[in-house]
Write a structure and sequence with these properties.
- Residues 653-738 form the Glycosyl hydrolase family 31 C-terminal domain.
- Residues 93-252 form the Glycoside hydrolase family 31 N-terminal domain.
- It holds the Pfam family Gal_mutarotas_2.
- Keywords: Glycosidase, Hydrolase, Signal.
- The chain is of the alpha+beta class.
- Among the domains are: 74-292, Immunoglobulin-like, CATH 2.60.40; 375-444 and 451-527, Glycosidases (TIM Barrel); 655-733, Immunoglobulin-like; 751-877, Golgi alpha-mannosidase II (Immunoglobulin-like, Sandwich), CATH 2.60.40.
- The chain has a 9-stranded antiparallel β-sheet with strand order 7-8-9-10-11-12-18-17-14, with no helix packed on it. Strands 30-29-28-25-22-21-20-32-31 form a 9-stranded parallel β-sheet. It has an 8-stranded antiparallel β-sheet with strand order 3-4-5-6-19-16-15-13.
- A hairpin with a 2-residue loop joins strand 5 and strand 6.
- Helix 7 packs across helix 9 (483-505) and helix 11 packs parallel to helix 12 (620-635).
- The chain is globular.
């Protein structure tokens, strides 16, 4: 069977399988239905056993054989905590900071464990005290108390006021047949968030979860593409976090069995977890990302809009690039999927891209950045240089007998023998070698790396489409590790190699790596997209809580395939104009914003009946809607860049569930269809087919302004917003400053000479504006500016001032435009002796150095302020008390 026929079978097969399983889900309401479990899967002339699509077999915790309760027999104080003698076992409780503890339970003589997900291990011990009595050993810092019960052994965490934050359950902690487990007490008002990419909503209370990534069928599976064993508990409006640092498959039962306890455990490995005290969710995420790594600042172009399809050829890429530029829809990235390769051999160009260097040059001239997909499976073909070199260096994953493991990826052919090897990324030698494989692609002009099927996938039914659990990965010390231990970190190690390719080959250029799979800490190497979603309203809705939990698990640079990737007309999985319009409205406000679609592996310009998904394919109305919202994203680029700066410094989320900012408001705890975009903008997308209005909850404690109408609302209420197809409900938190700029068609097209400060003022508003070159890593050497803006309503006047806190970057900004909403016409505007002239229009204002313009119809005041204005700008809104103007 030739390659083309194999590929088409693969495409039809995946589509048919997805259709069948999606049908099962719809019939049963469960991801694993009786229909799904019982039926074989047919696709053309192929038959698949259903075992090929079941999740890898779970290993339930046998609660009738839990470890017997332990007793603390003695303890030793350490420089950062205590070591407990528990008889045959010992425990370490180390205070890494005043609000973060590491807990390890080990057999005597075993070393404490730290996974590759941990970025920082050199913590300076905080100040703490240890006290002991007959029943307890108590460790106290200035913000956390760790109360250790001696018999039966258990741990209780309390805040500085003595309030219990978290406490071990009566079942305790220990090992059951080699499986480490921890039970915790809970009550009815505790909620749970995090664990990364999941399809079952925001709040995990009452649910069972698993951490083991795989290529899922259906998408709504227990196991999906990402494995982050970190969650946040929210109890009595106070937050804490727990990272179960275990790379084996892990499980969570969040009070599904009982309202009195929850528990987590793993298939193997050591019992190691980190406890983080809040009390704010922001505090927990900040400290968690101190431990596992903050995201580096991405290049500005990666924050733009991107376009991709399964099978773009060189001609397609050039046609799509021209389409975006001709139609004035901003875009920065164009992505090549697997069809660009020569016979699916990684790190090769095939006949569909006859002139990669010429293409790279033309893309650069038009302001596009090219990103290529790379898969970890290497075809075992003698004469293929990547395979030959890796074999000579002995860099592949092994079978238990020491031979190279052979799996199956591309080209798809179920009847063919396994034909691909997999790099052993556990070795630094392999990762370094892999980094260098990108050189020819960097040389031809690609700017980004897109890593796919890196769970890793091998299409062999008995292994559940991954590597067998007993496949062998050897580390740098010659120690052999089974795949069941390495599986969850395989992609993480690949991302490290890809990230380091930029360090080695493109020094001082900010890396852009996109991954499907990842572990805790992968955020320090790569952005995440949520894999092969479907063109359905259900998946549009699902994407919001999914992205929120990915962000809460430390991965703020996240997005979904806008419009949906997978299509099936028989099941109604097709991207209609209405669905795309609603999705692109939402997608313009995702941290990572990309339109990507499945076209059955055919060049879309060749097979004309494919349901194409570039914005202009849906007619003029949807094209205009796409242009409107994508242009808004580019206007908001300074705001978005500063949101990423906050994520880089504090772990702050870019797409935030409402509970992230408003945890004192219980009405946000289960809100799944709204989110904050940065700290000031609330997005309430329409996610129901045919809807032209929706209910919007406005969190309590602040006032909200309708972005489109200027109408003001008190928080703590639900309103109804009318929203025709072109309207995305969008609200601004009062007393916010939102930096904006003129629209560009791509990052770097125009210099930023005027920064607009879009200000919604009641009392006072502040904003710390960060700027660097947005391209290089010079910011790591201090080359950036920080300017603090303050705007305050002082009754009879509004005052603006700036504080240039850091000025180490040569900026092109020459002026600011202070844009005050809900304003009144000023009596005068001046800064000390510098009087501002009144302009008759925006155009006239833009041509002056110091001036203002009042739009009486919109009640908006524009004040043009030179960047070097050293005095406070005073906007007189009323006569002074003495009657003077």
């Amino acid at each position: 069977m030739n390659k083309e026929r194999n590929l088409m079978k693969r495409k039809r097969t995946k589509k048919a399988v997805t259709a069948l399983l999606a049908t099962a889900v719809l019939l049963s309401g469960n991801a694993v239905s009786q229909f799904y479990l019982a039926q074989p899967v047919f696709a053309d002339d192929l038959v698949f056993p259903v075992e090929a699509f079941r999740p890898t077999d779970d290993r339930p915790l046998d609660k009738s054989h839990l470890q017997q309760p332990m007793t603390v027999q003695s303890f030793e104080q350490l420089d950062n905590g205590v070591k407990l003698n528990l008889g045959a076992q010992e425990a370490y409780i180390r205070m890494l900071t005043s609000d973060m503890a590491k807990v390890s339970l080990l057999n005597k003589g075993d070393k404490e464990y730290t996974s590759v997900g941990i970025a920082k291990t050199d913590w300076s011990a905080p100040k703490f005290k240890v006290k002991e009595d007959d029943k307890r050993i108590v460790i106290t810092t200035d913000s956390l108390t760790v109360d250790i019960k001696k018999s039966p052994f258990g741990i209780k965490y309390m805040d500085k006021d003595g309030n219990v934050i978290n406490e071990d359950g009566d079942q305790g902690i220990g090992y059951e047949n080699g499986k480490p487990y921890v039970f915790k007490k809970t009550d009815n008002n505790e909620n749970f968030y995090g664990l990364g990419e999941k399809t079952d909503g925001l709040n995990k209370r009452g649910k069972e979860e698993g951490i083991w990534h795989q290529d899922p069928f259906p998408y709504e599976s227990k196991y999906i593409y990402q494995s982050v064993p970190f969650f946040i508990g929210l109890k009595d409006k106070k937050a804490y976090g727990i990272l179960f640092d275990n790379t084996y498959r892990t499980y969570y039962n969040f009070a599904k069995e009982s309202d009195d306890y929850y528990y987590f455990y793993a298939d193997g490995g050591k019992l190691t977890y980190y406890f983080f005290n809040g009390p704010q969710i922001k505090d927990v995420v900040d400290r968690y990302t101190d431990l596992t790594g903050k995201i580096p600042l991405p290049p500005e172009w990666s924050l733009g809009f991107h376009q991709s399809s399964w099978a773009y050829s060189q001609n397609d890429m050039e046609e799509v690039a021209a389409g975006y530029r001709e139609k004035k829809i901003p875009a920065d990235g164009l992505f090549f999927d697997i069809e660009y390769m020569d016979d699916y051999k990684a790190f090769t160009w095939g006949k569909k891209v006859p002139d990669p260097a010429g293409l790279g040059k033309r893309m650069e001239e038009q302001g596009f950045h090219q990103v290529n997909i790379f898969d970890p499976a290497i075809r075992a073909l003698p004469g293929y240089s990547v395979y030959d070199e890796g074999t000579a260096k002995d860099l592949w994953v092994k079978n238990p007998d020491g031979t190279n493991f052979l799996g199956k990826l591309w080209p798809w052919n179920p009847s063919a023998p396994p034909s691909s090897v997999y790099p052993n990324f556990l070795k630094k030698e392999t990762r370094d070698w892999w980094s260098m494989q990108y050189k020819p692609f960097f040389d031809t002009g690609i700017d980004g790396i897109w890593n796919d099927v890196n769970e890793p996938v091998s299409f062999i039914a008995k292994d559940h489409w991954t590597l067998p659990l007993d496949a062998v990965h050897e580390d740098d010390n010659g120690v052999k590790h089974a795949h069941e231990e390495v599986h969850n970190i395989y992609a993480h190690l690949e991302e490290e190699a890809s990230y380091n390719a930029f360090k080695k080959l493109k020094p001082n250029v900010r890396p852009f790596v996109l991954t499907r799979a990842g572990y805790t800490g992968t955020q320090r190497y790569a952005a995440t997209w949520t894999g092969d979603n479907h063109s359905t309203w259900e998946h549009l809705r699902m994407s919001i809580p999914m992205n929120s939990n990915v962000g809460l698990a430390g991965h703020p640079f996240v997005g979904n395939d806008i419009g949906g990737f997978t299509k099936n007309k028989q099941l109604g999985e097709i991207c209609t104009p209405e669905l795309f319009a609603r999705w692109v409205e939402l997608g313009a406000f995702l941290p990572f914003s990309r339109d990507h679609y499945n076209n059955d592996g055919d060049s879309p310009s060749v097979k004309q009946n494919i349901n194409r998904q570039e914005p202009w394919q849906f007619g003029k109305e949807v094209e205009d809607i796409s242009r409107k919202y994508i242009s808004m994203r580019y206007e908001l680029m300074p705001y978005l860049q500063n949101a990423f700066k906050q994520a880089h410094e504090t772990g702050n989320l870019i797409q935030q569930p409402l509970v992230f900012q408003f945890q004192d408001d219980p009405n946000t705890y289960n809100n799944e269809d709204q989110f904050m975009f940065g700290d000031s903008l609330m997005i309430a997308p329409v996610v129901e087919k045919g809807a032209t209005s929706r209910s919007v909850y406005l969190p309590a404690g602040v006032k909200w302004i309708d972005y489109w109408t200027g109408e003001e609302f008190e928080g703590g209420q639900t309103i109804t917003k009318q929203a025709d197809l072109g309207t995305l409900p969008l609200y601004v938190k009062q007393d916010s400053i939102i930096p904006r700029r003129e629209v560009q068609q791509y990052a770097g097209e125009k210099k930023l000479t005027n920064l607009t400060l879009d200000t919604y003022l009641n009392g006072k508003a502040s904003y710390s504006y960060y700027q660097d070159d947005a391209t290089t890593e010079d910011y790591t050497r201090g080359e950036f500016n920080v300017t603090d803006f303050h705007v305050e309503n002082k009754g009879n006047h509004v005052e603006f001032d700036q504080d240039k806190k850091v000025q180490n970057y040569t900026s092109d900004i020459q002026s600011y435009t202070l844009k005050l909403h809900d304003a009144v016409e000023p009596k005068k505007v001046q800064a000390a002796n510098n009087k501002y002239a009144e302009a008759g229009s925006i155009e006239e204002l833009n041509g002056q150095e110091r001036a203002y313009y009042f739009d009486a119809n919109e009640h908006v005041l524009y004040v043009k302020i030179p960047v070097d204005e050293k005095q406070k700008v005073k906007i007189q809104t009323q006569d002074d008390i003495d009657g003077s103007k």
